[in-house]
Structure formats: structure tokens, C-alpha cells
Amino acid sequence: MKVSVCLVALSFVALGAACSSDPSTPTPPTTAADRGPTVVAVDGDPNGLFWDAASDTLYIADDNGNRVLKWTDAVGIALVKDLPAAPPEGAGLGQLVLTADGTIVVTRFGYGTTGDVVSISKDGEPQVVPNLDKERRRVGLTLTGDGKMFDAWFVRLSTGARVGAIGSLTLAGEEPEVLTGLKKPIGVLAVGDDLFVSDQDLGQILKAKVADPKQYSVFATVDTPDLIGAGPDGSIFTGSAGGNLYKIAASGEAAVFKTGFQQVRGVAYDAKNRRVFVVDHDGNEADGVTHSIQILPVD
Q: pTM for this one?
């Protein structure tokens, strides 16, 4: 009688494990990438998105749940971590990033009184970054190639006017202003040597150099731009409260990539599979919540 040299528990078999020493056992097929168009239902309110190419994983900031989720083609949506308790008015989660050592960093809006940033180390629990000004309403966040972080924030003055800036953020709680003169900056994105900023009140995408952000120019004009993400061939994506997803070419020429959304918030691009993930936000939850993430092919 032939006896296999590899014994696999039934529970492992149920999960699809295979005995590598038995050539008669087929290797489980690789899950094909869904290029869309596809609507991914989300039990929550996604805002910021971050695509990690190394693990083929989409990270999601869920505002309604005050938590970080992740999505893969093979599994769908799963919980990463719940975040520290938020005030009654809500957490207001913004953009999130994944650093080289596996730490997740996410902004929390705070509505002018409890704004903060939360970090989640790869094997640890969420920690609020210390010493940050709680009046700053933070949304955008980005990483440079050498690991520096920039965040986008604004404050509301007693007159009702907004004043904003881009900060150079550290997890030790430093946040000096490096790009000023803004009104309501929402998105910030580092692409190579360039830094892009979306100012929702100005209706502009600004462009500066990472090494010297103080000097910037208007890169494109877009109605109510929101968070921004990198695209193919030097382009960037951004959405609007008006329901449009824009693709802005490296030349600065803006065009509607897709329309018909409720409100576009976070965007993330998967270069390997040439697809873009887009948050379709329902601006009125009272009539039934229909927040979702859409997957669109980019050809």
C-alpha cells in the first residue's frame, strides 16, 4: 500500500491546502483580477483608498465604522483594525497610506475640535500620533519615495473662512507647514519629485516640487476636486462632489473619465492590472445608504 508522506488535516483541506509532495494534487488556481466595471458593496462609508502593489491589496478608510478595512480579489473585504474611539460627531476618516515597514497611517478630520492622525504598526495596536493641533481638519495624506509624509489640512476661522496648508508630518507629532496660502486643501499626492494638491474651494490642482513645496503653480482646474491618486503615464485621478471622476494628463489637461457617480471621494490605481478603484459616496444617508467602491478598467 502506498502511503503519502504528507498528512493534511481536514480543516486545512477545507481551506484549499494541498500536499506539495503529491504531484497528483492540483495547485489551486490564482484568482483573476477583476478589472470591472464592478460595484463592490461596502458595509460602511469608505473615504481614502490606498493600493499596495506588493500584496495586491486595497486598503480602505471606513468612516462609518471608524476602522481600516482591506479588499483583495480572492477574499473581498476584511477588517484590518478598529481605531480608537471617535467623538459623537464622528471620526471623519480621510486618506490612508502604508509605509515601507507595514505601518498604516490614516487622518481623522475631527471637525475642528478633535482632529488627529492614527498609526497602526504591522504587529501592533492603533496609536494616536501625539502633539498634533486638534483644530486642524486633516484629510489628505501621501508618502514620498524616501518615506516622508505630507498631510493636507485646513482650519475654519471665526468669520467662517477656511485657511489651509500642507504639513510635513512625522509619527512623533511634528507637522510644520511647507506649503501655505491654501483655502480648503483636500488631497495631497507625491509622484516622483512632484507634489500635487487639490484645493476644493479654489477648484484647482496645484503642483510643486517635493524638495521645495513653497513654490507652486496651478496644474489644472477642476470643479470641487477631492482626494487624488496616481494614474498611468504621469496622469492623476480626482473626483468631485458633482459626481465626476477626472483624469488629468501629465500635461495638466483635465477630462472626465467617468460620470454618474453620487460623490467621488478616494481613488487608487492598480498599475499592474490597469484598473482604478473609486469611492462612490452617498451624500444623503437618510434615504438609504448606498456607499460603494467601483472598479473601472483603464485602457
A: 0.89
